Amino acid sequence: MSIDKLFFTIVIPVYNKGPHINRSISSVVNQTFQNFELLLINDASTDTSLEKMQKFTDPRIRILHREQPGPGGYAARNLGIKEANADWVAFLDADDEWMPEHLANYITLIRHHPDVSVLGCGCEFQDPDYHHVKSFLDPYYVKNYYKGSHLLFFAEYLISEVSGMRPLNGSTACIKREILLDVGGFPESIAKRGGDVDTWLRCIENAGSIFWSSHKGAIYYRNAVNMVTRTQLFLAECERDTVRNLLPKYSGGVCNLLKRFSNQRTIDAWRRNTHITNKCNIYLPGKLYVGVEPIKCLVWFVISLLPQCFYLMIENLVRNSKAVSHFRNAVKAISMLFT
Question: What is the pLDDT of residue 277?
Fold first, then answer.
């Protein structure tokens, strides 16, 4: 396909997203760049999702069906990748929406940098229940917008990840189809949550880099219905498996960054699971690389052995701006005892 005929396959997995699906589809159809196909993967929805999808008559839209829903929408995304006709596959969650010039920004970037294979950009989060703040920008965008669009090599991507600044997510990721196929797509058989981050890791490692565009491309809604993040335990198994498989390829700094990435994802999994009631949380000892972060691992080992209500109390205290500095000072004091 020549550069002048570049276009995108957009994949939206849909499972019981009736209240939101019109918003996400409309944000695609109304893009200023119009050379794309849109694959709506009906993941055996039982609500009004399919009925609402069928009301769109745009010839670029195809509705594909699965007989059983797959956790996290990973199997649905893999079906979309398999059926894609374009060189580039862009992802959008059914309860999110794109800004009108999202694809136009990406196509401009691709034409100026034809060797890139993985794209990311800024994102706005909408969550009226989060710290009483209705919306906020993702940390990577806030920290790096002033740099303009730029390339991150694999090690730089890992540094951003372990710093809590991810340069792409499920509604801003745009990846060459050949890369997605080469890494095996999304981990549909082993993950109910977290499989998207594992996929980005494998894709960026395979491509060697990610190009980040300094535009705000999507709005991520945290108060949507039927969100897997509210019901499924986060085990971080696929991320740990991927890191174990990658470690023999690397040494030195990249090796340490991979271990820190695995630690962060596992600890983050434990933290998120504390908000899901009636679920047995994961066990941290044996799952962390203690050698690269001994103090951090020790602190989390101890916290994870205490009743979860203890951690939730600490978390609520930290949300208070005055308590943040006290908490950080306490962590520093604890660290000094072991150094």
Answer: 66
C-alpha to C-alpha distance for 77 and 187, rounded to whole angstroms = 10
pLDDT tops 50 at residue 1: no
Angle between helices 252-273 and 294-305 (to 10 degrees): 20
Please write the tens of the pLDDT for every residue from 295-326: 999 999 998 888 888 788 877 776 665 555 55
Q: How many residues comprise the chain?
A: 339
* Separation of alpha carbons 110 and 119, rounded Å: 9
Q: Examine the fold and report which residue of 230, 250, 268 is the final residue of a domain before the chain moves on.
A: 230
**Could you tell me the pTM of the whole model?**
0.89
CATH number at residue 55: 3.90.550.10
Residues 38 and 90: their CA atoms lie apart, in Å, by: 9
Which H or E run includes 23?
helix 21-29
Tokens of 27: 């944000």
Q: What would you measure as the largest C-alpha separation in the chain, in angstroms?
A: 66
Angstrom distance (rounded) from CA 155 to CA 161: 10
Residue 211 pLDDT > 50: yes
